[in-house]
Design goal:
With 299 residues, the protein is mainly α. It has helices spanning 17-50, 56-71, 75-85, 93-103, 113-131, 133-157, 179-192, 196-212, 216-233, 241-249. It is built from ten helices and no strands. It is globular.
Length: 299
Amino acid sequence: MSGPAVGAPGGGGPVRVRDVVARFARFTVRTLRAEWHGIVVDPVRRLAHRGLSGLVLAFVAAFGVVFFHAVAQRPAGEAVVRIAGGVQADLPLWLALLRTPVSLYVPALDLPVWAGITQLFLAFALAELTLGRGRTLFISYATTLAGTLTVRLMIAIGPGWWGLGLPPETGRILDTGPSAAVVGLFTYLSVVRRAPVVFFLTGGSMVVESVVKPNLAGREHLIAVAAAVVLALFHGRGPGWLPRRAAVLVPWRRIPAPAAAPAGAGEGAGAATGPYPLPRPPRPRRHPALPGANVRDSS
């Protein structure tokens, strides 16, 4: 007599391959449908409601890249662009932080400009319609700044350290372009809207890029993906969420339950029922009887 099939719950009949394939197909269709509505349908509905005013950041980002690319075609313009938005790791930190917002619009030297404008416009458009302008600007700047600061740390570590460190000459490489912001926005959206296909296309392509062509941009893209994932985990949390979670996790912040009073304890004893006793209200004072008040007159 044959036993239950492997993987059959509760020892039931054998699980057919057709049933497994059908369940997987239904799960895939549900996931893709939810991702399509979260990434495409909902932003398009908001665009129809808000009009072109919902694409202000997307138009500004695309126009900024086109403008700086046109200015950099001339020698004098290239010098101006480098002074305004050229970021390198060997610059003073205050100067690099000052140029970082402008560096988002300066095209990278080794990447095609016109091919990246479509991705740039799409990333800022979807993020602005889904997250709002303020959060979109914050995510784009934070992911770019995370890559810039981490590169400085890698150069400070030096070569070695299991491939994490970078040689000092890396600090002279021009580090510009909106690619880190684009990768960060797509990653943030995929985590917030629960879009695994977009997430693996974004993060997976960055991993493949770093393996096939290891360079400074590939490392910054991976850092942007990691920073966006961390920021997405705090999406929708109120300003007091972190202190509340810390108060719950810290053991000495918990107030123990009041202990039960010992059996047979009188009113005076056992008044404190825990480590933080409450003050008892004052009891009315009973005056003693006057001497001879209840003595009968014998006269």
